[in-house]
Write a structure and sequence with these properties.
- It contains 5 helices and 5 strands.
- The protein is α/β, with parallel strands linked by helices.
- It has one domain: Rossmann fold (3-Layer(aba) Sandwich).
- A 5-stranded parallel β-sheet has the order 2-1-3-4-5, covered by helices on one side.
- Helix 3 runs parallel beside helix 4.
- The radius of gyration is 14 Å and the shape is globular.
- 36% of the residues are buried.
- Bound molecules: 1,3,4-trihydroxy-5-OXO-cyclohexanecarboxylic acid.
Length: 142
C-alpha cells in the first residue's frame, strides 16, 4: 500500500528565500514544496504539505492526522524550542515522526538547543538544507 506522509512546517518557513538566506538558503518555500512533491511522485509516496505561523493551527492539523497518516515530517521552526502543545499533540496521535531543521541547530544559539518535539520524534535531521525533508520522508516510507 502507498505510504501517506504529512509534512508540517512552522512559523516563518513561508519566508524561505527572503528570510536570512545565509542561514536558510536562497530557495523559496514554493521550491521546497515542488521538491517534496516531485520526490514523492517519483517514489510512489502520497504526501500532504502544510505550513502555518500559528501554534494552535499546527496542533489542530496534528490532531486531524490521527489514523490518516503513516508518518509526519515536521519542522516546527521556532516552536521547536518552546512548544509543549505540539509535543503533546504528536504523543496524542501516536504517528511516527521525524523532526527536520534546515540549519544545523546544534551549532547555533543556546536557546535553540532544546527541542520539545525531539523528545517524541524517532529521528532528527538538521543542517542538510531542503534535502533533510526528502531524507525524512524516505526514512518514514521505507
Ligand atoms: C529551524 C531552526 C529554528 O531554530 C528556527 O527557529 C527556524 C528554522 C530550521 O529549519 O533550521 O525557524 O527550524
Amino acid at each position: 500500500m502507498m505510504k501517506k506522509i504529512l509534512v508540517i512546517n512552522g512559523p516563518n518557513l513561508n519566508m524561505l528565500g527572503i528570510r536570512e538566506p545565509d542561514i536558510y538558503g536562497k530557495k523559496t518555500y514554493s521550491e521546497l514544496v515542488k521538491m517534496i512533491n516531485s520526490y514523492c511522485d517519483e517514489n510512489g509516496i502520497s504526501v500532504d504539505i502544510y505550513q502555518s505561523n500559528h501554534e494552535g493551527d499546527i496542533v489542530d492539523v496534528i490532531q486531524q492526522a490521527y489514523g490518516k497518516y503513516d508518518g509526519i515530517v515536521i519542522n516546527p521552526a521556532a516552536y521547536t524550542h518552546t512548544s509543549v502543545a505540539i509535543l503533546d499533540a504528536l504523543k496524542a496521535v501516536g504517528i511516527r515522526t521525524v523532526e527536520v531543521h534546515i540549519s544545523d541547530v546544534s551549532a547555533r544559539e543556546s536557546f535553540r538547543q532544546i527541542s520539545y518535539v525531539g523528545l517524541y520524534a524517532e529521528k532528527t535531521i538538521a543542517g542538510r538544507g531542503f534535502d533533510g525533508y526528502t531524507e525524512a520522508i524516505g526514512y518514514l516510507a521505507k
